[in-house]
Design a protein that fits this description.
The complex is a heterodimer.
Chain A (H helix, E strand, L loop, with lengths): L9 H4 L9 E2 L1 H14 L4 E8 L5 E8 L7 E5 L2 E5 L1 H7 L3 E7 L2 E7 L5 E2 L5 E3 L1
Parallel strand pairs in A: 1-6, 2-5
Antiparallel strand pairs in A: 2-3, 3-9, 4-5, 6-7, 8-9
Chain B lengths: L20 E6 L3 E8 L2 E4 L9 E2 L1 E3 L7 E2 L1 H6 L7 E3 L9 H7 L6 E4 L5 E5 L2 E3 L1 H20 L5 E6 L5 H13 L4 E6 H8 L7 E9 L4 E9 L2 E10 L4 H15 L8 H17 L5 E7 L5 E7 H26 L8 E5 L6 H11 L12 H13 L12 E2 L4 E5 L3 E6 L4 E2 L1 E7 L8 E8 L9 E9 L11 E7 L5 E7 L5 E5 L11 H10 L1 H35 L2 H17 L5 H14 L1 H16 L9
Parallel strand pairs in B: 1-11, 11-12, 13-18
Antiparallel strand pairs in B: 1-2, 2-3, 2-4, 5-6, 5-7, 8-9, 9-10, 13-14, 14-15, 16-17, 19-22, 20-21, 20-24, 23-26, 24-25, 26-27, 27-28
Helix pairs in contact in B: 3-4, 5-10, 6-7, 6-8, 8-9, 12-13, 12-14, 13-14
The chains are: A alpha+beta, B alpha+beta.
Chain lengths: 126, 624
């Protein structure tokens, strides 16, 4: 696995969990709320990362039906954002946006931890 | 930067492995494409924000054809090369098309057996190719919107489409470079859009009033499967007719004679349509029509007057509803949900009348223009594997029975209508004549008992059957229908193993009686069918007896019969052969009994002779 050994130790990194945050733009929050309403169930939005893809790590963006014990929960514009602690290390400071490019539309991660992305932006390295 | 969508819990895909899927409503007047993004199914607009793509293709010499709005605007002066309503031509034979649609301006060429070709400035094109142009445009729109190639699509077809029309639709998809995962009945798609497939059971009516066609379908949901119980409708009734009555009213009010020039008529129709749309949520609309020169007419159309004008049109949709319920053996109160489909169901009077007819609230929350495409998108999303496993896979059913022609032009049904697909059924047949080495198989579809009243789908031959006495060969014929409703027929002789098969790539219909008419016919003609079947069965039986007698006479007649005896048998056989030509099955039965009586001694002597032959050289003990 390309990312093994890169795990960042929380204490060494100088952060405490309380300082960490993930935000949604208003546009993103409105869309998430709409999709959740339409789906008819779910407690919020789960964001995460996992190892795969052409450039190391890939984003996960899913509906959340439950909150695990370890999960960190943030709230932005009335939407709950749920992240597990491991993913949070890679996502801290991220702002999730919703936008359009031509006919295409969808969510975008503005992640300050990213050093480089693959051309497509679906996976990244930190 | 890629734009991401929200997945279901645990269903995230690896980067670059998104399973993009779309649903396509390939309509007579308009077509749409829809997809599920972040769990929400919606139709996709083009760059100008238009969701509906007019199902119009304009062919030009030396250039790519134009599709949709562009085809319309550029082509009003070129009707011969502007193909509209191509769906009406799908899977039909040229004789059938020209006879029924004498008003079509297109020039038809006789193409491959039965398949019509249209002569256009861009070359000769088939309905399949024309539909493929529409699908190609929708594919491009979807791929641009989703940022990737489509993995697969679900295309909707009317519930009454037969195998030939379904195959033609699937071919159009393939030609457009699409992986058509499944064809889905339009009413089923509409029911899926409302999530009605999640209910345990119930009867659903789909009332679909479009621009130029009206369809009513009664579906029964049973263990997650929608059965089509009855369909009906009017292929020449829709919102365009409402526009015409309003235009006629404006013309009268404005004091214009009936002889209107086409340009003014087009303007009147345009204004009429706008007025109709305004009256959906307003009680009156003011009209201003510029006439010749500086003249102008102004007036007001109230909802009340509008309702009077279109009253009979709306009423006309209710008799097919009544008939469909009767065919399904149901009363209106047995229907638990009514789904409204098609732009014309926005008209308040339509909703009011339909609601009164069924005595229920209607399902109208989803845009009636988009509801079919949305249902198809949901199904496509499931088939592409983007949903968790507990989402049930929706099954479909065979719309009309599939069978085989047997002796005497009768139909043996192998797979009855409303069987869920995929399905495989087999039946054994045998030879009719001694030493018969080939068997011709004729695959038909329909509800009637006689082949001539059903639709012919395919013919093929099983050759190389080893010579045997009549009835000894065992030929197993299996019908297989895949998830798209496409048929594969295989015949195998069980002793020798010789086999032959055919995929129903139908000849695109030689005669194409409307499927709904076929269904209705089968009920109206039940008694006729029974009589015809009885007659044919007796004729076939008479032929079998005569055939067996003549081969027995050829073998042993001279040896076992005196001339007098032979004359009696011959006379009885002659009478039977003659009676068999008539249509009185009782007379045939009597004549056959005469033959059996006259030849009884002969048969007995043959039996004795063959027993003697078998016993020759043996002692009695050998047989004990």
């Amino acid at each position: 696995m390309r990312c093994s050994g890169r795990r960042i130790d929380r204490e060494d990194n100088g952060f405490s969990e309380a300082d960490m945050a993930i935000t949604l733009t208003e546009a993103a929050a409105n869309q998430v709320r709409k999709f959740l309403d339409n789906r008819g169930k779910g407690v919020g939005l789960r964001l995460g990362v996992r190892t795969s893809g052409c450039s190391g790590m890939a984003y996960v963006i899913e509906f959340a039906d439950e909150i695990e014990d370890d999960d960190q929960v943030f709230e932005a514009h009335g939407v709950k954002v749920i992240v597990n602690p491991k993913s949070l290390l890679y996502l801290d400071g991220t702002e999730l946006d919703f936008g359009r490019e031509g006919l295409n539309e969808g969510f975008k991660f503005n992640n300050p931890n990213v050093k480089d992305e693959c051309g497509c932006g679906e996976s990244f390295n930190i | 930067m890629a734009l991401l969508q929200i997945s279901e819990p645990g269903q995230s895909t690896a980067p670059h492995e998104h399973r993009l899927a779309a649903g396509i409503d390939l309509g007579t007047t308009n077509s749409l494409v829809a997809t599920v993004r972040s769990g929400q199914a919606d139709t996709l607009p083009d760059a100008s924000g238009r969701h509906l793509l007019p199902s119009v293709v304009h062919y030009r010499s030396g250039e790519d054809p134009r599709v949709g709005e562009e085809a319309w605007s550029g082509a009003s002066g070129d009707p011969m090369n502007t193909i509209i309503s191509v769906k009406r031509l799908m899977g039909r034979g040229v004789a059938d098309v020209t006879a029924k649609d004498a008003h079509l301006p297109y020039e038809f060429l006789q193409g491959k057996p039965g398949m019509p070709l249209l002569r256009t400035a861009g070359g000769d094109v088939s309905p399949v190719e024309i539909s493929a142009e529409i699908l190609r445009t929708l594919k491009a729109r979807a791929e641009e919107s989703l940022g990737g190639e489509l993995e697969g699509v679900v295309v909707t077809v009317p519930a009454y489409f037969d195998e030939a029309q379904r195959q033609a639709t699937k071919d159009a998809g393939r030609l457009a470079g699409l992986n058509v995962m499944r064809l889905l009945n339009e009413p089923t798609a509409a029911a899926v859009a409302y999530g009605l497939d999640h209910a345990a059971e119930g009867v659903v009516a789909i009332y679909d009033l479009g621009g130029g066609t009206f369809d009513i379908s009664i579906l029964r949901l049973n263990k997650g499967v929608f059965e089509v119980m009855a369909t009906g409708g009017d292929s020449a009734l829709g919102g365009d007719d409402m526009d015409r009555v309003i235009a006629a009213w404006i013309r009268e009010q404005a004091g214009i004679g009936e002889d209107v020039d086409p340009m003014l008529m087009r303007r009147l129709l345009h204004d009429a349509r706008a007025a109709k749309e305004t009256l959906t949520d307003q009680d009156e609309v003011s009209l201003r029509v510029s006439l010749t020169g500086a003249e102008e007419w102004t007036g007001t159309l109230t909802r009340e007057r509008f309702d009077q004008l279109i009253g009979s049109l709306v009423e006309k949709t209710l008799s097919p509803c009544r008939r469909a319920l009767r065919d399904a053996g149901l009363r209106s109160r047995d229907v638990s949900e009514i789904v409204m489909v098609g732009g014309s169901t926005r008209v308040p009077l339509v909703r009011e009348q339909v609601s009164r007819f069924f005595g229920r609230e209607l399902l109208v929350d989803i845009d009636p223009d988009k509801v079919v495409a949305i249902g198809a998108a949901i199904q496509a999303d499931i088939l592409a594997g983007n949903r968790s496993d507990d989402e049930m896979l929706l099954l479909d059913v065979i719309p009309l029975s599939l069978g085989l022609e047997t002796m005497g032009g009768l139909v043996e049904k192998i797979i009855p209508r409303n069987t869920t697909i995929p399905v495989a059924r087999a039946q054994e047949f045998t030879t009719f004549k001694d030493g018969q080495t080939a068997m011709s198989l004729h695959v038909v579809q329909g509800e009637r008992d006689r082949v001539s009243d059903c639709r012919s789908l395919a013919r093929f031959e099983l050759q190389g059957i080893p010579p045997m006495t009549a009835g000894a060969a065992r030929i197993r014929v299996s019908f297989q229908v895949d998830a798209d409703g496409l048929l594969n027929v295989e015949a195998q002789e069980q002793v020798s193993g010789v086999q032959s098969s055919i995929e129903v790539k139908p000849s695109y219909g030689l005669t194409d009686p409307e499927i709904e008419a076929m269904l209705k016919d089968s009920m109206d003609h039940a008694q006729d069918d029974m009589n015809a079947r009885r007659l044919r069965e007796h004729q076939v039986e008479a032929d079998r007896v005569l055939e067996a007698l003549s081969s027995a006479l050829a073998e042993d007649g001279d040896r076992l019969l005196t001339d007098e005896e032979r004359a009696v048998v011959d006379e009885a056989a002659r009478v039977l052969a003659q009676t068999r030509q008539g249509s009185d099955y009782r007379a045939i039965k009597r004549a056959q009994e005469q033959v059996e009586q006259a030849s009884a001694d002969f048969v007995a002597r043959r039996m004795d002779a063959s027993i003697r032959k078998a016993m020759a050289g043996h002692r009695i003990e050998d047989f004990e």
